[in-house]
Amino acid sequence: MVQGNRKIFLSEQEIPREWYNIQADLPKPLPPPLNPATNEPITPDMLSPIFPMNLIEQEVSTERWIKIPDEVLEKLLLWRPSPLCRAYGLEKFLGTPARIYYKNEGISPPGSHKPNTAIAQAYYNKVFGTKRLTTETGAGQWGSALSFACNQFGLEVKVYMVRVSYDQKPYRRIMMEAWGGRCVPSPSPDTHAGRVYLKDNLDHPGSLGIAISEAIEDAVNSKNTKYSLGSVLNHVLMHQTIIGLETEKQLKIAGEYPDVVIGCAGGGSNFAGIAFPFIRDKIHGKDIRIIAVEPTSCPTLTKGPYVYDFGDTARTTPLLPMNSIGHQFVPAPIHAGGLRYHGMAPLVSRLLQDGLIEAKAYAQLETFQAGIHFARTEGFIPAPETDHAIACVIDEAVKAKEEGKEKVILMNWSGHGVIDLASYDAYLSGKLHDYIMPDEDIEQLVCELKRC
Amino acid sequence: MVQGNRKIFLSEQEIPREWYNIQADLPKPLPPPLNPATNEPITPDMLSPIFPMNLIEQEVSTERWIKIPDEVLEKLLLWRPSPLCRAYGLEKFLGTPARIYYKNEGISPPGSHKPNTAIAQAYYNKVFGTKRLTTETGAGQWGSALSFACNQFGLEVKVYMVRVSYDQKPYRRIMMEAWGGRCVPSPSPDTHAGRVYLKDNLDHPGSLGIAISEAIEDAVNSKNTKYSLGSVLNHVLMHQTIIGLETEKQLKIAGEYPDVVIGCAGGGSNFAGIAFPFIRDKIHGKDIRIIAVEPTSCPTLTKGPYVYDFGDTARTTPLLPMNSIGHQFVPAPIHAGGLRYHGMAPLVSRLLQDGLIEAKAYAQLETFQAGIHFARTEGFIPAPETDHAIACVIDEAVKAKEEGKEKVILMNWSGHGVIDLASYDAYLSGKLHDYIMPDEDIEQLVCELKRC
Asked: Under an 8 A CB cutoff, do B178 and A375 touch?
């Protein structure tokens, strides 16, 4: 009667010792980021005012396996290896012959996959001699993960948090402060970029674009200070591959191999984390589907073109080769704050071009319905971002039922929704809406992009 | 360099199959609860309007080991066995030779140890034929745990939540609703007990005493409905012993045995959960200290007499033999909502009388300071209740340093503080105060008690 294999644990000794760098296996190499002023490739030196050289080296490396330093492993062991869980309850509810596995990244101190890279970035900065990091955060997942990581390595951190989130969602700000981080609402009076917006409107709600500009300006102008980014870049995605590498080992223990791998995708890091090791198998001939899931309100992969675009609204970053719906894009106010980014990681975008991954988009209401199904079967309440992956898992499991197929479905359960309960309240009381980008808007954005 | 034993996991196959019932090993048997009208012992029959007979049997059983039903184990496996963690970071910060272990009960879906008994109670009610449960909740930990458990077994649940918490702390209410539970502010218009208070004041802030009266009235007057309590009673404490039984196995794997076992104590269930299996060893001669930690604002064990008192303010329960500072006691507004109960579980009270456990009280500011130390060393942010245990752990670890002794300190990390971040905000911004009950107030309460 008692299921003996609901959760598959790895011992601490079994934690992966290397990250997987998918750049070594890409069918076509990644196009370089470009300097917007010259349209020439960016050189590592040009990134050195904002990133430490050891991370820039990782960003451009094509080594397949990169050793995880012992000091990083030691911190990751605070919560890793994370359990791989069989969703018996959800399977039963759906009446599916599919076997559903979810990798629970919600058990980390900040409650998501984000600290996998935050810990690594804090470490490399520490080794490089950085004393202080700056970053931006929207809803606060990344800012809290970096505060946690900087606290572990004794670095100072300043987080520029979009003011509307700072005011409306204080829990993430408090979390940062509990770990000794400093968090200010953006636009702030502390930078030139911030003051420009405050001059016209002291209550300016802010945006991720403004916050990025502030964090970069601060890093460039302050002593021993660097900037840190929580997704999109190659090294960030690589740090997340520990998720998929652990999962490979865990599935082997269970005697399973996935037919489908599913992750939600905002900037691309949690999707990459679970998917990249399996994409390697696919490149080597394995028959496996890999699905990135995004919101219909921000359909970067499903509707955006593959172009060179800025990483931020304020046009301060290099041009990145990626799927984008335009750096001027203003996302609808969906609750999955981590999926409201206009672009997609160059690596994930490249894999879509090469036909190695698929992309699907879901509207908000369906994702919250999926999250409630999950909470009422498996117990754990997922983050609104994670709900997107669950919606796709449910679709695939129902399809397996219709086809009478015993499929193995694997998903990245990227984080818990305990701090996002207000969004479930809005859903359960019928106050949420769907946002689906009209095709005309997409066409107009694409048209603007081609001019950029 | 990499620590290989930060977390000790048990496999699912190693989960304990029996609960430990300390009633079998008590030096003196527990005095019976009394009927307040007659001062005669309560019989099982008299409890049957509010509890199912299978749980009443557990309440009075003196069998040492009680089999955990497979159906209960299957649900506990959603998150159990929970990891036992070595607090290397905290040890290093304190510079102590002590080895500190914490049992992480914060990983359950509601985030605390509470579902260990909620699952068991929902199961036994289901088997008994109960269709619906009622309960009260203060800050919401228990109400959310019972909602989760009832959802797992397909029972309806109605939670009467103290109105001031219902209004000020909506996250726990939303959590209950996410699991399909119904939560109403108490006093409510749904019961006679509630209407009495609403008549005079539509905005009555409520109290745990009123909420208990409402939940019991509802259970007694509704079809197929029983009442459920989250602490204090013998069977509730027994369901929590799975914590200590797992820990015994985990410490054996680590080759350790504790010198000190520490848990915070409100009603007594999380303390009992980790402590009872080790108290058994102590009864059989083992040299081990067991410390229950409470707030100075509600010093039940450290200042309250051992008497017969009501379990609730409204005097609807039997008289229980316990340490109490009086059922009329109005607790100071400390943030550790789970530690504001006027009484203490009869089993825990009895063990204090028999000299098998010690009790210590800590003031609020010291506990939050301890919680911040923990968050900044081990990463995880503890619940304000858990902070009490941590404050005591730190004291014991510092003492070990002063004495130059290699002590093993074990604590129950009863829950995470992610929904309690507002209390950390108040602490970090200097807005919290200490509440220490003056001795005169205690004397007056004790004097009133002796008359009851």
From this structure: yes
Mean pLDDT of the residues in chain A = 94
Judged by CB atoms closer than 8 Å, whether chains meet at A177 and B424 is answered as: yes
To the nearest 10°, the Cα dihedral for B120, B219, B182, A89?
30
- The predicted pLDDT at position B271 comes to 98
Q: Which of the two residues, B168 and A97, has the higher pLDDT score?
A: A97
Contact A379 B78 (CB under 8 A): yes
Q: For chain A, what are the domain ranges?
A: 7-15+69-111+235-450, 37-65+114-230
- pLDDT of res. B329: 83
Question: What is the pLDDT, as a whole number, of residue A1?
Answer: 42
Nearest-CB residue to B421 (from A11, A152, A171): A171
pLDDT attached to residue B436: 84
8 Å CB contact of A179 and B375? yes
Q: How far apart are alpha carbons A147 and A177 in whole angstroms?
A: 8
The per-residue pLDDT for range A321-369, each reduced to its tens digit, is: 999 999 888 778 888 888 988 999 999 999 999 999 999 999 999 999 9
Q: Does domain A7-15+69-111+235-450 have CATH number 3.30.450.20?
A: no
Residue of A nearest to B370 (CA): A178
Contact criterion met (CB < 8 Å) for A78 and B424: no
Q: Where are the beta strands (DSSP E) in B324-398?
A: 358-362
Tell me the pLDDT tens digit for each residue of A2-58. 556 899 999 999 999 999 999 999 999 999 999 999 999 999 999 999 999 999 999
* Chain B CB contacts of A4 below 8 Å: 12-13
Locate B385 and state its tokens. Answer: 């209740």
Asked if the model's pLDDT at residue A452 lies above 70, the reply is no
> What is the residue type of A145?
A
Q: Across the interface, do B9 and A6 touch by the CB < 8 Å criterion?
A: no
Degrees to nearest 5, angle at CA A206 with A201 and A210: 110
Predicted model pTM: 0.96
Please give the residue of chain A at the shortest CA–CA distance from B376. Answer: A179
Contacts of B114 in chain A (CB under 8 A): none
Contact flag B428-A177 (C-beta cutoff 8 Å) = yes
Q: What is the pLDDT of residues B25-69, one digit of tens each?
A: 999 999 999 999 999 999 999 999 999 999 999 999 999 999 999
Tokens 């999950």: give the residue: A374
Q: Is the pLDDT of residue A164 over 70?
A: yes
State residue A297's pLDDT score: 92
pLDDT value of residue B1: 42
CB crowding B340-356: b at 16 or more within 10 Å, else e: bbbbbbbbbbbbbeeeb
- Residues B376, A179: C-beta atoms closer than 8 Å: yes
Of B138, B112, B435, whose CA–CA distance to B295 is shortest? B435
Residues in chain A with CB shorter than 8 Å from the CB of B148 are 379
A391/A340 Cα distance (integer angstroms): 17
Strand order in the sheet with B156-162: B182-186, B156-162, B132-137, B225-227
Residue B330: band (very low, low, confident or very high) from pLDDT cuts 50, 70, 90: confident
Please report, as a single letter, which amino acid is at residue A53: M
- A37-65+114-230 placed in CATH 3.30.565.10: no
The C-alpha atoms of residue B146 and residue B149 are separated, in whole angstroms, by 5
* Phi/psi of residue A264, nearest 5 degrees: -75, 155
Report chain B residues whose CB lies below 8 A from the CB of A107. 107
Give A-chain residues touching B378 at CB under 8 angstroms: 78
The ipTM assigned to this model is: 0.96
Cβ-Cβ pairs closer than 8 A, A with B, add up to: 129
> Rounded to whole angstroms, how far apart are CA atoms B79 and A283?
35
| Residue of B79, B386, B431 to mutate when probing chain A, most A C-beta within 10 A | B79
- CB distance A301 to A268 below 8 Å: no
Q: Do domains B7-15+69-111+235-450 and B37-65+114-230 have the same CATH topology?
A: yes
